[in-house]
Amino acid sequence: MSLTLAIALVAATGFAQGPWDCGPGGSSSVVATLSDGTLTFSGAGATEDWPVDPETGETGTPWYEIRTLVTAAVFESGITGIGTGTFVSCSELTSVTLPESLTSIGDYAFTLCAGLTSVTLPESLTSIGAYAFGGCSGLTSIALPESLASIGEFAFIECDGLTSVTLPASLTSIEEATFMDCSGLTSVTFPESLVSIGVDAFAECAELTSVTFPASLLSIGEYAFYYCEGLTSVDFPESLASIEANAFGYCTGLTSVRLPESLTVIEEELFVGCTSLTSVTLPGSLTSIGNSAFYNCNGLTSVDFPESLASIGTSAFGNCFGLTSIAFPESLTSIEEQAFAECRELAFVTSHAVSPPSLGADAFTGISSGSTLTVSAGSVEAYTASEWNSYFRDRISAGNAVVAAARIWASGGQLYVASVRNGEAQVFNLAGRLVKTLPLIAGQTVAQALPAGVYVVATEGSGRKVVVY
């Protein structure tokens, strides 16, 4: 008989099934015993933090070699913490009983417990560690208690069976990749206390269809909703100060976006590859649009740039095949290389900048061969003498087009019109019937509740189709 087989037989017949001293440092403050598949922890305080090999996933628990024998876990009253690596790869574990004394679940505590379908967390719990339930692909539901103050990075990564999550009011941040690649996740309820969403937090959650952020939210991290292909709508709060690069890249189901007035910068590749995006409302405070921010958003037909915009980055609107017209504000000073490259249908360009903004290489290469450029009176000579002429040769003229007097968008059953001057907005249905006339006051935003539907809103220098939902 081989030594390996002998050890396996001894383990299976009970010699190595405890009791084990499992308190911190191997103390007897907590004792574990395995009997008939149930691993029971008794005593007082937290269990040991077992080392986890990051390459192999092996841990130092005394039951690791016989982990497939563990089908249930019971923590008796008095246990306050579950240590690092306690149940890594216990693939047959299907039931966990936790006491009301429990305050923490450590890093990697239940990682790769594929047979675990549900866990009832006690109201005493305050923290869940990194990777704690990572790879628990059978987990379909988990109720997070209101006492929970922190959830570690990667805590629920690749929990494919998880369909919905309600985050507790005690939570202020979602850490890196917490719910990344939860392929079955369809809905998330955020608490009003939430301040930040971390890098990759919900990346590749392909079934997530909509998200509504709380008014408390200040920041969304890089790649936070990257490749959430099922996402069709996003409601941003006005409190939001930053959305980092790639946060909504390749959300191919996203159809419309209204960015809050609090944003001053659109980071690089923010909406790259959002091929279904047909409408985007930019904030009036915006100063710059980053590299490839809307690259390959070929559903866009037009974009209203605010009067504050100073720069448009490299490839920002590259490959936006559906873009037919654009108007640059007087504030614009630079357009970087390939910013509008291969916008094949772009036929009408207006620039209100008196001095031609600087152009990077191939800024307009591949646009419609008959495209025209309309500039302010008195600026034709300057544009003709600049690099702009290489794209609009003999098609640069002075026009009397005015800068849009209002910004128009819809959200939550309301039509919004933000006006820069006094006047009025006329709202028509698709049959051409006047539905409403809204008085406009310079510097103010007017809101009007309307039944769900498609409307055409006309103001001085601006007219657009709006979907109210």
Helical run tally = 3
| SS elements, strand count | 39
* Helix content percent band: under 10%
Whole-number mean pLDDT: 91
Main beta sheet: strand number and arrangement?
Answer: 5 strands, mixed
Q: pLDDT under 50 segments (min length 5)?
A: 1-16, 400-404
Radius of gyration: 29 Å
What report would you give on this structure?
It contains three helices and 39 strands. The model is unreliable at 1-16 and 400-404 (pLDDT under 50). By secondary structure, it is mostly beta strands. The longest helix has 11 residues, at 3-13. Strand 38 and strand 39 (462-468) form a beta hairpin. A five-stranded mixed sheet has the order 1-2-3-5-7, with no helix packed on it. 4% of the residues lie in helices and 29% in strands.
Short description:
With 469 residues, this protein is mostly beta strands. It has a five-stranded mixed beta sheet, with no helix packed on it. The chain has a five-stranded parallel beta sheet with strand order 4-6-8-10-12, with no helix packed on it. The chain has a five-stranded parallel beta sheet with strand order 22-24-26-28-30, with no helix packed on it.
Structure keywords:
469 residues, mainly beta, 3 helices, 39 strands, 4% helix, disordered N terminus
Which helices and strands appear, and what pairs or packs with what?
Elements: H1 3-13, E1 20-21, E2 30-35, E3 38-43, E4 45-46, E5 72-75, E6 79-82, E7 95-97, E8 104-105, E9 118-120, E10 127-128, E11 141-143, E12 150-151, E13 164-166, E14 173-174, E15 187-189, E16 196-197, E17 210-212, E18 219-220, E19 233-235, E20 242-243, E21 256-258, E22 265-266, E23 279-281, E24 288-289, E25 302-304, E26 311-312, E27 325-328, E28 334-335, E29 348-351, E30 358-359, E31 372-375, H2 380-384, H3 389-392, E32 396-398, E33 406-411, E34 414-419, E35 423-429, E36 434-440, E37 445-449, E38 453-459, E39 462-468
Parallel strand pairs: 3-5, 4-6, 5-7, 6-8, 8-10, 9-11, 10-12, 13-15, 14-16, 16-18, 17-19, 18-20, 21-23, 22-24, 24-26, 25-27, 26-28, 27-29, 28-30, 29-31, 31-32
Antiparallel strand pairs: 1-2, 2-3, 33-34, 34-37, 35-36, 35-38, 38-39
